[in-house]
Design a protein that fits this description.
Elements (H helix, E strand, L loop, with lengths): L1 H16 L10 H10 L20 H8 L7 E3 L17 E8 L2 E7 L9 E3 L36 E9 H4 L10 E2 L1 H11 L8 E5 L2 H8 L7 E2 L4 H7 L3 E4 L16 H10 L3 E3 L4 H10 L3 E6 L9 E3 L3 E3 L1
Parallel strand pairs: 5-7, 6-8, 7-9, 9-10
Antiparallel strand pairs: 1-13, 2-3, 4-10, 4-12, 5-11, 11-13
Helix pairs in contact: 2-8
Length: about 325
Amino acid sequence: MRKTAVSLLVLVVAATWLPAQSGHKVTKADIERWMSEFSNWGRWGKDDQLGTLNLVTPAKRREAAALVKEGVSISMAHNVLTEKAADNENPFVHTMLPSVSGFQMDNFSVSFHGMGQTHLDALCHASFQGKNFNGSPIDKITAEGCPKDSILAIKSGILTRGVIIDIARLKGVDYLEPGTPIYPEDLAAWEKQTGVRVSAGDAVFVRSGRWAMRAAKGPATAFAGLHASCIPWLHERGVAALGGDADPEVIPSQVEGVGAPIHVVALVAMGLPLFDECDLEELGKEAARRNRWVFLFTAAPLAVPGGTGSPINPIATF
């Protein structure tokens, strides 16, 4: 009798993890169901704009700070791309200005959303059925920006435990081929191999080797990344922030009718901010050299009222 009960429990748990279809297939209907099932709307109050960053508690910050043993910091930002390319439709523009009284002056111009520049997506970057995270209606967005869920909500920055999940290293390759999906069992295999279990409040960064791939093959329009079937895993683990070396999710989308399923569920339903186009090459090498896959993670966006995101320079400190 007890064995039967345990078996039923396992089946119930498995059913909550898998999409309605067998295998890895995820449909538009699954995404719509998960928008409700994994929603954090109201979890931290009806006016909350931090979403999963609420999981980064003072205790979590103290735990993260205690990870610093060497005082060695590594940038997770790729140098800005100033040349137009297939993966950089809006190049970063750096213009030198006339010097003033012996002081050198310059100007930066950047349209950071896209595949070229390292950036942080604010929760108002994506919407579903006319609403942003926590039910904020998009018809309230004006030329001045987003009145709620903007990047300004993260003005004080993020300090928490960072975890790198190096799937390219797990597979024994320099980089995953463009368009390669990363499945929940890949995440589980990495945890088993490293002994690191992702926990609530962590900032998770998934390395596919995108920048190594770009160096070897040139700009691309398809990218390796998390498959939509990883969405339940992100929710169950309480991931506070998610990043990748392209978008964190596989491109093109493998969910018919949904262009960016992880972006939509993460930003709109979960309130999970996303770090896109991070450069994880040096971090991957240094983590492997130390056999240390966790670190103090810090990042702070520009304080732009109403902004849908920000260029960012995330930092890992060992």
